[in-house]
Write a structure and sequence with these properties.
By secondary structure, this protein is mainly alpha-helical. The protein is built from seven helices and four strands, in the order ββαββαααααα. A four-stranded antiparallel beta sheet has the order 2-1-3-4. A hairpin with a 2-residue loop joins β1 and β2. α5 packs antiparallel against α6. The protein is elongated, with a radius of gyration of 52 Å.
Length: 340
């Protein structure tokens, strides 16, 4: 996301957050400056922007409590059946009835554990239907760490781990103050990180150029290009200027030599060579002007953002003097913090 900086009612930018952080650490953002994101119209002070209030930590919800169901009641075993009377037995001793001997009791392989030999159903079964549920079975209390048990630490509902979600933010983070604190400066954008341009007024450069037959102008062109080279090391202005001046002077010398050397039938050749060299030199010098213009607009609209706009028409016709007019304005801004 990009951000805009407001100073004395003027808006500059956009900048990235890293650029603003670096400018603040270098003391180039003042206490009265305001900042806003590009998708918002609300300006905040630089203190609120770099030190936003911390969000409140979320409260942990209580863990659910599981109540185990009551155990099922144990059914009472049915009593042993009473044997039915023998209808064939004699009512008295006068009518005896032969009673066959009772067979020897045999073990019942299907009788549950604890049953007697006479009544295999006398003892209630253990662990079978109707018995209380076994430990850890259905209906019993849940096993430790199972469903309904208190959550392991840390788990859902436990307090958040240190430096986790809801914990204190790691240092340093977004909005944390930069090491060293804020160092105010009367003019943060012109705190000396970049050199000041040549501050001579443009009309003085013009007068000195005329008085010295434009020798001073050549020196001043070199002076301007060296300053632009400090702002933009990739600038090719000095290369274009030297190439254009060298081609123009070299073409004039070559044309003069050929004029003396050739006969009258080829007298147009030196003039043609001189014209071509002069035209090529002029094109290179114009390219140098616009290369300087591009470097100045790039620097003074991003690094030292003052909203500099250079007219292409004024650059084409007045170039060096037009640049010097703006150099004097920027030098005054460097000194006072006010851009005329």
């Amino acid at each position: 996301m990009k951000y805009f900086l407001q100073r004395e009612g003027r808006s500059f930018g956009p900048y990235s957050f890293d650029d603003l952080k670096r400018y603040q650490s270098e003391g180039r953002i003042g206490p009265e400056d305001k900042i806003r994101p590009e998708d918002s119209e609300n300006w905040v002070t630089q203190t609120e922007f770099f030190n936003p209030p911390a969000a409140p930590a979320p409260q942990a919800s209580p863990a659910p409590v599981f109540m185990p169901p009551a155990p099922a009641p144990t059914p009472t075993p049915a009593p042993a059946p009473t044997p039915a009377p023998n209808p064939f037995a004699a009512p008295t001793d006068a009518n005896p009835v032969w009673t066959p001997p009772a067979p020897a009791p045999q073990a019942n392989p299907f009788a549950p554990s604890g049953a007697t030999s006479n009544n295999p159903f006398s003892a209630p079964p253990t662990g079978g239907f109707g018995a209380p549920p076994a430990q850890q079975g259905f209906g019993g209390p849940p096993a430790s760490q199972g469903f309904g048990a208190p959550p392991a630490n840390p788990g859902f509902g436990a307090p958040p781990a240190n430096s986790g979600f809801g914990g204190p933010p790691a240092s340093p983070g977004f909005g944390a103050p930069a090491p060293g604190g804020f160092a105010p400066a009367p003019n943060p954008a012109a705190s000396g990180a970049w050199p000041a341009p040549p501050e001579m007024q443009w009309y003085i450069v013009l007068i000195l150029s005329i008085v010295t037959c434009y020798l001073f102008l050549l020196y001043w062109i070199y002076n301007q290009t060296q300053f632009v080279k400090k702002l933009d090391p990739a600038s090719k202005g000095i290369t274009f200027y030297l190439g254009g001046i060298g081609l123009t002077i070299g073409g004039a010398i070559l044309s003069g030599i050929l004029t003396v050397a050739v006969n009258e039938s080829l007298i147009f050749v030196p003039a043609l060579i001189g014209m071509i060299c002069n035209l090529g030199g002029t094109v290179l010098i114009i390219l140098g002007h616009f290369n300087i213009r591009a470097s100045l607009e790039r620097h003074y609209n991003t690094v030292e953002n003052i909203g500099l706009k250079l007219s292409p028409i004024m650059t084409f016709f007045f170039n060096i003097f037009y640049f010097q007019y703006h150099f004097a304005r920027i030098a005054e801004w460097k000194k006072t913090g006010r851009l005329a």
